[in-house]
Amino acid sequence: MNLDRLRGNRNLLFWALQTLGWGAYGFTQFVGSAVYGKEPGYVQVIAIGAATGFLLSLPLRWLYRRLWSAGPRAMLVCSPIACWIVALAWRAVVNTAYLQIVKPDWAMEHPSQPLEIFVGTLSTTALFLCWTGLYYGVKFYERLQLEREATLRQSALAQEAQLKMLRYQLNPHFLFNTLNAISTLVLDGQNRTANLAVSRLSEFLRYTLDQDPMKKVTLRQELDALNLYLGIEKLRFGDRLRLEFDVDERAETALVPSLLLQPLVENAMKYAIAPREEGGSVTIIAGIEGGGLRLAVVDDGPGLPPAMASNGRGVGLRNTRERLKVLYGDAHSVEVAAASPGLSVEMRLPLEI
After folding, report:
1. Strands 280-289 and 241-247, how do they pair?
2. Residues with Cβ within 8 Å of residue 349, at least 6 apart in sequence
3. What is the pTM of this model?
4. At residue 233, what are phi and psi to the nearest 5 degrees?
C-alpha cells in the first residue's frame, strides 16, 4: 500500500528518494571514516555534507523541471553547468566545516590558500551529475509508465467498443421473420399465440440489452437465454424444428461470452430449417475436454454451400470468430465441418469457472 502511494504521489516519491539517497551517502561516508580511522570531528563534517547536499540539490529539481520541458539540448547543456555551480557551493561549505572542526589551528599563509575551500569540486560535480542522472531517469520512467497506461486504456476502450459493436449486432432477418410471423398469427386470428410470441421476443430483446458485453455468463445462463430465442423460433417453425441438447452438467458453471450460441443457432435456422419443408434438427453440445470447454452447434441440413466454403455461414459465424479473437486471442479455436448430413460448428475455449 505504501509503495502504491509513493508511485501515485510524485512529491512524496521525490522526498522519499531524496532523503534515502543523501542518508545513504552519509552512511557510506561514516563507514569509510571508521574503516580508515578519520579524526573524531570528521563525523560532524559528514553530517554537514549530507545536510548541505540535501538542501543544495533542491534548486536543481526546480531547474530540471523547467529544462525537462525545454528539450534534450537544454538539458545536456545546462545540467552539467548547474551541477558544477552547486558543487562549488557544496565544497565551500564542507571544506570550511572541515577546517573549522577538524583543523581549527589551520592558518592561511599563502594568497592562493582561500581557493583550497573549493578542492574536490570535480569529484563533487560527478556526484551531482549522478543525482541528475537519477532524477532524469525517474522522470523518464514516469513518462513511459504514463504513456503505457494511456495506451492500455485506449486499447481497452477500443476493445470494449469493438466487443459492444459485435455483441449488439442483431440479425435483421431474425427480427423481420419474427415480426412477420407475429403479423401472420394476428391475421389468422391466433391472438393468444401472437401475444406469446411478442412476450418471448420482448424477453429475449430485454436480455440482449441488459447483459454487459464485457461480462461473461455461465453456460447455464447462456442456455437459458438461448431457450428464449428458440421459444420464438419454435412458434415459427412448429414441429418442423427439432431440438436436442447434449450438455455435460460439469460444463454448466463454465463462463462464456453472453449470446455466443445464438448467432450459430440462427445460422442453422436460416440454412438448415427454413429452406426445407420437412424442417430439421439442431443439436447443441457442451462438455469439458482436455482441460477446456467444447461447444458445438450441429444441424442435419444440406451442409455448407461451395460459395461459403472459405468463410463459413455469413455474418453470424464471422461475428462469433471476431468476438472470440478479441476475448481470447490465440487461446481458442472455431472449426466448421461437415456433419454427414448437415454442418457442425465447434468451438474450443479456455475453461473458466
Report:
1. parallel
2. 256, 292, 293, 295, 324, 328, 331, 332
3. 0.56
4. -65, -30
Sign of dihedral through CA atoms 250, 254, 258, 260? Answer: negative
Q: Are residues 304 and 267 in the same domain?
A: yes
Q: 253 lies in which domain range?
A: 168-350
pLDDT, one tens digit for every residue, the chain (353 residues)? 455 555 557 788 888 888 999 999 889 888 888 877 777 788 888 899 999 999 999 999 999 989 988 888 889 999 999 999 999 999 999 988 888 887 776 544 444 456 677 888 898 999 999 999 999 998 888 888 888 887 777 766 566 665 555 555 555 667 777 888 888 888 888 888 888 888 888 888 887 777 766 678 999 999 998 998 898 888 888 899 999 999 999 999 999 988 889 889 988 888 889 888 898 999 999 999 988 999 999 999 887 665 554 455 566 788 788 888 888 888 999 999 887 788 999 999 999 98
Residue that is last in its domain, among 107, 122, 155? 155
Q: How far apart are CA 92 and CA 85, in angstroms?
A: 11
Number of domains in the chain: 2
DSSP category for residue 103: -
**Of 155, 190, 225, which residue constitutes the final position of a domain?**
155
Q: Are residues 189 and 335 in the same domain?
A: yes
